[in-house]
Amino acid sequence: MSGSARPAAVLGVLAAAQFVVVLSTSIVNVALPSVRDGVGLSGTGMAWVVNAYGLAFGALLLLGGRAADLAGRRRVLLTGLSVFVAASLAAALATEPWLLIVARAAQGVGAAAVAPAALSLLMYVFPAGPGRGRALGVWGAVSGAGGAAGVLLGGVLTESMGWRSVFHATALGAAVVLAAGVRWVPRASTEGDDLPRLDLAGALSVTLGLVALVYSVTTAGRTGWTDPLVLGMAAAAAVLLALFAAIEHRHSAPLLPPRLLSRGSVAPANLVMALLGAVWVGLFFFLPLYQQQVLGDGPLRTGLAQLPLAAANMAGAFLAPRLARRVGASVTLVAGMAALSGGLLWLSGISANGTFTGDVLGPTLVIGLGLGIAFVQLTGAAVAGVPAGDAGLAGGLVNTTRQLGGALGLAVLATLAASRTASAGPGTSHAMALTEGYRTAFLVSAAVAAAGAALAPLLTRTPAKPARTKETTR
């Protein structure tokens, strides 16, 4: 890193980039009813507005991480931000459902370049030690707050200026971060002009395979698992993912080299991160719907209701490094996942005649605290002990597992919630039927978080060795 680059300024840019990426995961959630009416989305289409972003983001993160390692982190970061700005503007101008969904997928492509490059830069600027722990605390705080802030900002903008302003705002935010990145993120002398060979075949096969898998799970909720389309898409997913595995085995620079998963706690940390992602995305999808469709809150009130959750999330992220130093990383992670599970179990008790203070406030405070603690611990564990040359790939992998866990988790949770709502008795009101579906989603999420807490001790069985390789920022 150049001597003129201030670590605090670089951290500010990187944290802002991560904030914009996470913000875009949830900012549309409150606006979904308005988006549905504006472009004619179906119920399944609403889920795809969320999943198109998550799938493209998650499936291409490994490619983005490897590109950051090979082509230069600064270059990939700024390119990703540029794509993100253009895609956000396209979403704001969409007049048809498919155009909106394609634009959301393009946002995910840009985010897939931004997130791993930013995390890789953070790991370089702040070497292992207390400084990195504090930087990861900031990273975790903005990541967690981004989800809740997205719901808040989405509500404010939707109610005051309409749903299209949501995408105008993300475009503006990304443009500001892009300008700051040009100013503050240093250019290294080692950054060349030729892009090394990337595993494009692997990226294409894993992306198509995951899209087919999520599509089959989502469609099964409407047509059943014996539907020919569901079975065909599930078979296509199996073939494509098997093809991906074969490509990775033979490629000279695979997206997911086996050596990475054998480093420290990379493999178990990513496994638990996938479970956390499923819970995270599901929470910010179903909670705003419950508040609007059952409690009758408007977009603005729904957004404001996320402030306590955001505050608890930030508190958990800042608290995590201190807890880890006092009681150990494993105990801290178990505590975070257990708090998350307990809060979701509490939230599964919502009622059709409930209130925000009586049904939502208490559980979301516990959930936010657990999310913040768990995210920081898992992010640190997933990149610990990884050589500098693979730092971007490790950052891409941990973001991949969170996003793909979220996409697959949302597909499953949405299917279960819709099935539970549809099975409500003939005398059940619409609000009660919806509530039963949301309760099911939160209850299953609590079980998933509990499974993550049970798996957390695996992270300490293969202690990471600090990487000794040094390299300049690219």
TrEMBL record:
- PROSITE patterns in the cross-refs: MFS, SUGAR_TRANSPORT_1
> How does this protein lie in the membrane?
Multi-pass membrane protein
Indicate whether Membrane appears among the record's keywords: yes
Provide the Major facilitator superfamily (MFS) profile domain boundaries: 10-464
Q: Where is this gene product found?
A: Cell membrane
Q: Where are the transmembrane segments?
A: 40-64, 76-95, 101-126, 138-157, 163-186, 198-217, 229-247, 268-290, 302-320, 327-348, 360-383, 404-422, 442-460
What name has this protein been given in UniProt?
MFS transporter
